[in-house]
Amino acid sequence: MNNGVEVCFMNPGTSEMQFVAALDRVGGMRPVLGLFEGVCSGAADGYARMLRKPAATLLHLGPGLGNALANFHNARKARSPVVNIVGDHSTAHKMFDAPLSADVPAFARTVSDWVRVAESGEEMGTLATKTIEAAMGPPGRVATLIVPADFSWSPAGDLGPAAQFRPRAKAFASDIQEAANFLRQLGPESGLLMGGDTLTDAGLKAAQRITSGTGARIFSDRNASRSALGGGRFAPERVAYFPEKAGAQLAGLKHILLVEAKAPVSFFAYPGRKSTLLPDDCAVTVLARPGDDGCYALDCLADCFQAANGLNLGWRGSSFTAGSEALTTETLGQVIAALLPPDSIVCDEMVSSSEAVVAQLAGAARHDFLPVTGGSIGQGLPVAVGAAVACPNRRVIALEADGSAMYTLQALWTMARENLNVTVVIFANRRYRILDVEMSRTGAGDLGPLANNMIDLGRPGLNWVKLAEGAGVEATRATTAREFAASFSDALSANGPRLIEAVL
């Protein structure tokens, strides 16, 4: 807490009871209970994406950590700072190979960039500080501290020192000048790929100046942890999901600058296609690595060119008159864009519906967009929990595929318990729709009846109104654009969580 860690998303067990008891003895820590560890890890990711500082997670032994791994994977890909505390059996008990015994460090290393096991109670203060420093990076990391139970009930040493955080590295002037020369010489045959913290207002304004002064093309990493969108902001081209479209986007580039981003690759491998997306003859220069100060590099680069500040993009907002037509991803996107409150936070796990909706959000009011980062299913609802805890005065919109939502359904209960202002929209197509597309793309052939059963979610159909109400969240179902617009508007004006099942 002395180092700014004020929230702990937890699902504790016997080994962590000393930590739980301390919550009442020591003020300043907000505990948030998740009924599944994957909710805790995903919530810590969402919290970190919004505040750029870590929440803690408290988990129970190897199996508890194992349940959280999928969303720690997403947090790692988002470069989110997370302080992950995992209890373990006492040191004297480990030799007996009790039922919950496991190699906890091995579990942790799969998703953590920093792992330590406490070796005494006296070092707990120092280790806590080191864990926070490791989490903050830069770039942000999942830092895991494993605490045997006897070191929790043993006398502790002094509080650790204040954490010392490393500054972000800044680009050299010579590198800035070299990058400026590329852009001057190549114009629209050059480009920038932005990621990390550059997709905020400061980075977008600098990028707008750069393209205005040079004609260079500006792209955004589709899996960057957070993007500022809407309201007339400059909008880079988001690199497409499928490699054919991405390849067409990037065609003609002779040189690209990477700013807190990596060279783009296909999400999956496909028969007969290369994994890299840039043209074969495109040169690549790293202007700022992940964890460097990319906004500083962009601002310095923009100063190399004659370009006006604050160019007016002529934003007028979205409008849509909802009728009795059946819902489609396009009409859902139009309604959401037209009604989205200013300064909302949009959490995206729409999967096959995402492209159509995101295209409409470009005309919405200003908002922050939290996309899929690592591709591990079940991030959307937990990330929305964390974002809502981090920013209680902002409306959070969770746009969620029905199949993906079932992975971390327990997040609805935490939304209700904490009375979080989250509006959940379930895209209910009753199918793993993305796999229909991937089936043909991978050359697996047509769907037979048994294969179709592995993609179909309609037998039995999921009743999202009842599922939400069972978790304490008020819910409605919409089958037409008019019904959805009415439900969405009502949910946005309500205090606390609401869910809308949008039937496609």
Short key terms for the protein model shown above:
single chain; 504 residues; alpha/beta; Rossmann fold; six-stranded parallel sheet; globular
Can you give a write-up of this model?
With 504 residues, the protein is an alpha/beta fold. It has 3 domains: 7-153, Rossmann fold, CATH 3.40.50.970; 173-302, TPP-binding domain (Rossmann fold); 329-503, Thiamin diphosphate (ThDP)-binding fold, Pyr/PP domains (Rossmann fold), CATH 3.40.50.970. Helix content is 37%, strand content 18%. The protein contains 19 helices and 18 strands. The protein has a 7-stranded mixed beta sheet with strand order 9-14-13-15-16-18-17, with helices on both faces. Strands 2-1-3-4-6-5 form a 6-stranded parallel beta sheet, with helices on both faces. Helix 11 runs parallel beside helix 19. The chain is globular, with a radius of gyration of 24 Å. The model has no long low-confidence stretch (mean pLDDT 93).
User: How many runs of DSSP E, i.e. beta strands?
Assistant: 18
* Poorly predicted ranges: none
CATH architecture of the largest domain: 3-Layer(aba) Sandwich
**CATH topology description of the largest domain:** Rossmann fold
As an assembly, this protein is single chain
- Whole-angstrom Rg: 24 Å
How many separate structural domains? 3
Q: Major sheet, described briefly?
A: 7 strands, mixed
Helical segment count: 19
Percent in helix: 25-40%
